[in-house]
Amino acid sequence: MLTPTAALVADAAARGAGIGAFNVVTLEHAEAIVTGAEQAALPVILQVSENTVRFHGRLAPIAAAARAVAAESTVPVALHLDHITDPDLIAQAGPCGFSSIMYDASTLSYVDNVAATAAAVRKCRRAGLWMESELGAVGGKGGAHTPGVRTDPAEAASYVAATGVDALAVAVGSQHAMTTRSASLDHDLIARLRTAVPVPLVLHGSSGVPDPELLAAVQGGLVKINIGTALNLAYVRAIRAELTPTTSDPRTFLAPARTAMAGTVAHLLRLLATPAVGQPHP
Q: Does any domain span residue 237?
């Protein structure tokens, strides 16, 4: 069933748990993510990034596929546009079935990030969209997830107040596109960010974070957990295992690839759903 992102994030925060947000690249990704969520009997967020929009050449077809898969699901599923820099995509989000976006101005200076993000928030409010953003390194080309960069709690609190965002992606030790699960998160910083920031916190680059670290991060205050590379690794491994010099039917390798991704999703959703002991998250 198609459900607003805001509702799924708010419910997870109220339970002191996490909500998994998985990146869709192909139809098989969307089908696998929803199948995994149904196996776990847990809600999920389908994310389509601006990079994926560029890959397909336009938003509407992949959005229509994801929306159809979400609508027929037996669990709540939200549609989210991820890492958007093109303002035109904000206008397309609602008509294409998305209830939220992540607007990414993290490579800009702090002042320019605040100005661009606040303008995007105003557009989202008019369109009825929930909005996430990312606080990047001042002047850093690599954004908030450049190795070694961390989010300052006081600056994060000021940023949220100045922009009005609904959720904030923070840099606490993860990196995008990691292919090994070796990231070590700063759990003391997570706790300080949770105290300082009045909106739900988001972890990007979660594929490189091992299970115990993810669990501790969610129980420490992170709510929306973005996962992309982990699915692509499962997808490609399964395809490699099935391909032979005589393979001619893509269904022979896409079906096991889809099954492998679904298993990854189910496992991670169950892990993230473990509630924290004590107070709910902001």
A: yes
Cα–Cα dist 103/213, whole Å:
26
Inside any domain, residue 282: no
Does the structure show a pLDDT above 80 at 25? yes
Q: Which carries the bigger pLDDT value, residue 65 or residue 144? A: 65
Q: Give the CATH number for residue 67.
A: 3.20.20.70
State how far the alpha carbon of 197 is from the alpha carbons of 88, 157, 160, 203, 211, in Å: 29, 5, 7, 14, 25
> DSSP per residue over 106-140, as a string?
TTS-HHHHHHHHHHHHHHHHHHT-EEEEE---TT-
Residue 211 annotated to the active site: no
What is the extent of the structural domain holding 250? 5-272
| Tens digits of residue pLDDT in 54-73 | 999 999 999 999 999 999 99
Q: Tell me the H-state helices in the chain.
A: 5-15, 27-40, 50-56, 60-71, 87-93, 110-127, 153-163, 187-196, 211-220, 229-242, 251-272
In a domain, 281, yes or no: no
Q: How far apart are CA 68 and CA 231, in angstroms?
A: 20
Total domain count, the chain: 1
Computed over every residue of the chain, the mean pLDDT equals: 89
136 pLDDT tier (thresholds 50, 70, 90): low
15 within some domain: yes
Catalytic hit among 11, 82, 112, 186 = 82
Q: Enumerate the β-bridge partners of residue 78.
A: 45
Give per-residue pLDDT as tens, 83-119: 999 989 999 999 999 999 999 998 888 899 999 999 9
Residue 124 in contact with residue 160, Cβ under 8 Å? no
